[in-house]
Design a protein that fits this description.
The complex is a heterodimer of chains A (151) and B (87). Chain A is mainly alpha-helical and 151 residues long. Chain A contains seven helices and no strands. In chain A, helix 4 (85-93) packs across helix 7, helix 5 crosses helix 7 and helix 6 (112-119) crosses helix 7 (123-150). Chain B is elongated, with a radius of gyration of 14 Å. The chains are: A mainly alpha (151), B mainly alpha (87).
């Protein structure tokens, strides 16, 4: 009986810990989201153009020529890492800049600050590029899942 | 009707690399995650949901189930999640 009570107490503590962490994380996330939302208004200054698959929808914050295509031809390890075909196709359709940012952040586990220094841009731009790239991937995978369900 | 498996045993199983236990755990915290995401636009909500699921799995995988002293520290200090937020 004593053990049961102890376990229940532990469970409650764990639930409280997770709830508190999630709540605080969400609160901070909302604060940074509000800041980002204010910043993204500036994106409207980017030249209006057609949205091409894999291109930056709102104009990229990272200037300069994208990294050479050749660099991405030697990406055997990454492509072996991604087992989901839809995800792999979506990844290959991303713009070179987005791929470079994702590769550095996700596969090479570099920090945003480090990637920003290498690209010569601000850390916020890298954060924005990462979110855009992940959003492209998510949309592509969702669309694939939906079409699979329908067929 | 089967009894619900206790949270601690699920945590122990998840720490032993059992993906089903981890999925079950995340499913149990789904109402919490959805509540935290209320009021956000859909795409932002998806982002936050994913971040929260990641946070919960990190907590679960690192939670010291049997070591009471570090569990106490872990619960008091609130973990290291705060450093992991983007700017």
């Amino acid at each position: 009986m004593g053990i049961c009570l102890q376990d229940e107490l532990r469970e409650r503590r764990l639930i409280a810990y997770i709830s508190k962490s999630a709540y605080c994380y969400a609160k901070r996330w909302r604060q940074s989201w509000r800041k980002r939302a204010q910043r993204e208004v500036l994106q409207l200054n980017a030249p209006i153009r057609e949205v091409v698959e894999g291109s930056d929808e709102f104009g990229s914050l990272i200037p300069g020529a994208p990294a050479a295509e050749e660099e991405y031809l030697v990406t055997a390890p990454i492509e072996q890492t991604i087992s989901d075909v839809a995800l792999l196709v979506a990844y290959q359709k991303l713009s070179p800049t987005h791929r470079k940012v994702l590769k550095d952040l996700v596969f090479d586990l570099r920090t945003q600050r480090d990637v920003a220094d290498r690209l010569g841009v601000t850390q916020q731009s890298v954060s924005f590029a990462k979110r855009q790239a992940l959003r492209h991937l998510r949309r592509a995978v969702r669309a694939k899942g939906r079409s699979d369900r329908d067929s | 009707m089967t009894a619900k498996e206790s949270l601690l045993s699920l945590v122990t199983r998840a720490q032993g690399s059992d993906p089903i236990a981890l999925a079950d755990l995340l499913h149990r915290f789904r109402p919490l995650v959805r509540k935290c995401c209320q009021g956000l636009p859909p795409f932002e909500r998806e982002d936050l949901e994913q971040e929260l699921y990641l946070l919960i799995s990190r907590i679960v995988l690192n939670y010291p189930v049997h070591d009471s002293s570090s569990r106490f520290e872990c619960t008091c200090e609130g973990g290291d999640w705060a450093d992991q937020l983007d700017a």
